[in-house]
Specification:
Elements (H helix, E strand, L loop, with lengths): L7 E4 L2 E4 L3 H11 L5 E5 L5 E5 L2 H8 L4
C-alpha cells in the first residue's frame, strides 16, 4: 500500500496534521465508539493510533488492519 500524503500546517507555533473527517467516521462506525484521543509514537516513523474505550479495544485487537 502506498503512503497517504497529508499536508503539515502551522498554527500558533504548533504543527498540525489534519485527517479527513470520513476516516474518523469510518473508524468510529467500524468500532462502534467515538475517538476522543489518539496516541502518537515518535521515531523514524510517526504512528497515530486511536485510544479506544476498553470494550472497543478488545474488538479492535481481533481485526487485521
Amino acid at each position: 500500500m502506498s503512503p497517504l500524503i497529508r499536508k503539515v500546517y502551522e498554527i500558533k507555533g504548533s504543527k498540525i496534521i489534519a485527517l479527513p473527517k470520513s476516516w474518523i467516521e469510518w473508524f468510529e462506525r467500524e468500532n462502534q465508539c467515538k475517538i476522543k484521543e489518539v496516541a502518537v509514537e515518535v521515531g523514524e516513523v510517526l504512528t497515530i493510533q486511536p485510544i479506544l474505550p476498553l470494550k472497543a479495544e478488545k474488538a479492535v485487537t481481533k481485526r487485521s488492519f
